[in-house]
Design a protein that fits this description.
Blueprint (H helix, E strand, L loop, with lengths): L1 E6 L5 H14 L4 E5 L2 E4 L2 E9 L5 E6 L7 E2 L2 E3 L1 H18 L2 E7 L9 H10 L4 E5 L6 H7 L4 E6 L4 H11 L7
Parallel strand pairs: 1-9, 1-10, 2-8, 8-9
Antiparallel strand pairs: 2-4, 3-4, 4-5, 5-7, 6-7
Helix pairs in contact: 1-5, 2-3
Length: 178
């Protein structure tokens, strides 16, 4: 089962993903994958970390202070940390985790030519996958993922957040949201 969460920036996609992870973990399942939380300095976003959910290993996905790597807007993307932390986290999750979480499948991560093949392998696996995916991107890989026959896409809004949580937990095997 492949579940994709999309929605406008700031609507709560990552927060929803954390809630799902906590419920799955509470059921004693192992989880793996990656997160890309914002780096805030004096209340301003200056980049994004890349974090291995299972090991806690952390690096830099992108930063305004970066001096090498491709750019997305004002950010320089750190291809080495995508490979050494994000991709390795997904490969390890394929081997050892019951559930795989990805936050997120988006243009920054896709600057690494190695990222999309591993994401595709994860989606092809029999393991339940819950991923945040960029809403407006026309990137060919993002469109390909959204068009898979085995995905269920939830478009998150402020109004439907609680309902979507319940629906996803039900899809993942009747895990109660209570």
């Amino acid at each position: 089962m492949n579940i994709l969460i999309t929605g406008s920036p700031g609507v709560g996609k990552t927060t929803l993903l954390f809630k799902i992870e906590n419920k799955v973990r509470a059921q004693r399942y192992s989880i793996g994958g990656m997160h890309c939380p914002a780096i805030l300095e004096n209340g301003k976003r200056t980049g994004f970390h890349i974090l291995d959910i299972a090991s806690g290993r952390k690096g830099i996905l992108a930063s305004v202070q970066g001096n090498k790597g491709p750019t997305i807007g004002k950010y320089r993307v750190n291809l080495e940390d995508i490979r050494e932390i994000g991709i390795l986290a997904l490969e390890k999750a394929l081997e050892t985790s019951d559930y795989i979480f990805i936050d997120e499948i988006a243009p920054m991560e896709l600057k690494s030519s190695s990222f999309s093949p591993v994401v595709w392998e994860v989606l092809e696996s029999k393991k339940p996958v819950v991923a945040v995916i960029h809403q407006r991107s026309r990137h060919p890989f993002i469109l390909k993922v959204k068009n898979r026959e085995d995905v269920v896409i939830f478009n998150l809004t402020v109004e439907n957040r609680n309902q979507v949580l319940e629906e996803i937990l039900e899809l993942l095997g009747c895990i109660s949201a209570e």
